[in-house]
Design brief:
The protein is α/β, with parallel strands linked by helices. The chain contains 10 helices and 10 strands. Bound molecules: adenosine-5'-triphosphate (ATP) and magnesium ion. The site of magnesium ion has 4 residues, from helix 1. Keywords: Amino-acid transport, ATP-binding, Nucleotide-binding, Transport.
Amino acid sequence: MTEPAGGSTAVAPRRGSTLLEVSELTAAYGPVRALDGVSLRAGTGEITAVLGANGAGKTTLLRTISGLVRSSSGRVTLDGEDITAAPVEVMVRKGMAHVPEGRGVIAELTVEENLRVGALFRGKVGRAEFDRVYDLFPRIAERRDNPAHTLSGGERQMLVIGRALLAQPRMLLLDEPSLGLAPRIVAQIFALLRELVDRDGLSVLLVEQNARSALSVADVGIVLNLGRVVATDSAAALLADEQLRHAYLGF
Ligand SMILES: Nc1ncnc2c1ncn2[C@@H]1O[C@H](COP(=O)(O)OP(=O)(O)OP(=O)(O)O)[C@@H](O)[C@H]1O
Ligand SMILES: [Mg+2]
């Protein structure tokens, strides 16, 4: 990265500079090749949407980036540092958090106890960090002493995002946060992501089948089909590409 003219060495990374880089990533489940040489980058302070139909490889991509699935070849770097297949506690320490598909919470634990899980691999997570999550999600704050199994789908999604934020990530990987939620709740969650990105400089890799909503909040979009990248462009350009939308995005 080049230094801005007259800039000091202590400046925050520039918006849009590469934070996460995936190069020629390949992953397979036995004979099924789920990722076939995927390369992409996600910028600092940006939302990068990864789109594509069922089975395109979106979840596998996130799982391979965060080391849950082993790649057969390729490389993942975070801020220039090779993190390919690093153990989860290393990933978390380096600033990567993954919110998996399906909003898994520990049903018998309270909301606050579930949030504490997110802070596990981070040394000093204090009251202020919890309060910040509660400020972001007032619904979660109201339910903090309730068991997680009593939450609605939307509240659960907020809880798992809050839990990931307690690990104080730079790069948040989100797998299908909109799935099965009412449009109003989806809009609320996406607006909040946008706020975190614009205000705090968080960087997000957002996997979505709901391409229209994802592109309305994202800066950049990447379209996967059968484990390969078929398009990468600004969100606005992808929204305007009728042929591509019809072929791969279902709208
Ligand atoms: N655990 C697994 N074992 C075997 N094959 C798998 C496994 N997980 C995924 N696959 C296969 O890998 C391919 C990519 O799946 P993946 O779940 O990454 O797609 P996706 O884009 O997330 O789909 P969806 O939109 O339905 O969530 C598919 O062909 C799928 O059947
Ligand atoms: Mg998936």
